[in-house]
Specification:
CATH superfamily of the largest domain: Diaminopimelate Epimerase, Chain A, domain 1
Mean pLDDT: 94
Low-confidence stretches: 1-5
Number of domains: 2
Structural class: alpha+beta
CATH architecture of the largest domain: Roll
């Protein structure tokens, strides 16, 4: 298939998808030369002047000599990049499985190699890899105990290809996340900023969690945040390694196994469309 260039006169196709209300604009760039600038990402992300998303996801051809089915790139709503996005990975995996007829996929991201499979009943699972538990892997600005950070509330730090800061509170629903989240996203202990979660234990192996995403804000769900919270709860002895996580947008099931942290949940392909040349050119 010939390569389509972003500077051609052809409109740019996209898909709108979500995982539990964590929403994405997905562009299939396997046959497309596309340079995503911060201005382009922010313009598409605007929910009045663009389409709106929590993350923009590009599906690229696998790297040279890679056995993977595709390579994924992620951009936040503020134009910054992220090495991982669990719900977007599940959405793209569902799309590629439907396209190829496969029930298992090998995907790569800047986080590393991720395996995905069809779990039946409309559910898609992805292995997000092993959590990063050392201070310099998260990363943090200095050597501290990641299980309980020297921050008020004693949150736990976890890396899932992106940094996380998980607070266990009495009632996550009572935390004013719009104020609480940005206060810790920019904490000096996190040189690359951080995703912020507030969570409480509902019952045995059952967590209620809400999330402030780095570079995005409050979101209805976050796959990597769910994985980080499950890992933090298991490390602190609050749960086992296989848990149900209830988010504002629905439920994910997390299983921290020997081969990595598996995440399972539903996805939705909402619509397909294309960006006009007029819109793209307006973003510079």
């Amino acid at each position: 298939m010939p390569v389509m260039r972003i500077d051609s006169d052809t409109p740019l196709p996209f898909m709108k998808m979500h995982g539990l209300g964590n929403d994405f604009v997905v562009v299939d760039a396997r046959h497309l030369k596309l340079d995503v600038t911060p201005a382009l990402a922010k313009g598409i992300a605007h929910r009045r002047f663009g389409i709106g998303f929590d993350q923009l996801t590009l599906i690229e051809s696998p790297k040279a000599n890679s056995p993977a089915d595709a390579h994924l790139l992620f951009y936040n709503a503020d134009g910054s990049t992220s090495a991982a996005c669990g719900n977007a990975t599940r959405c793209v995996a569902r799309h590629l499985m439907a396209e190829s007829g496969k029930s298992e996929l090998h995907l790569t991201t800047d986080r590393g190699d991720l395996l995905a499979h069809d779990s039946g009943d409309g559910l898609t699972s992805v292995n997000m890899g092993q959590p990063q538990l050392l201070w310099d892997q998260v990363p943090l600005a200095e050597e501290v105990d990641t299980l309980e950070l020297p921050i008020e509330g004693g949150p736990t730090a976890t890396g899932m290809g992106n940094p996380h800061c998980t607070f266990f509170v009495e009632n996550a629903d009572l935390i004013p996340l719009e104020e609480f989240g940005p206060r810790y996203e920019h904490h000096p202990l996190y040189p690359e900023r951080t995703n912020v979660q507030v969570a409480h234990i509902v019952g045995p192996d059952h967590i209620r969690m809400r999330v402030w995403e780095r570079g995005v804000g409050v979101t209805l769900a976050s796959g990597s945040s769910s994985c980080a919270t499950a890992v933090a709860a298991a490390r602190r002895g609050l749960t086992g390694r296989k848990v149900q996580v209830d988010l504002d947008g629905g439920t994910l099931w997390i299983d921290w196994r020997e081969d990595g942290v598996w995440m399972t949940g539903p996805t939705m392909h909402v619509s397909s469309g294309s960006f006009t040349r007029e819109f793209l050119e307006s973003l510079g």
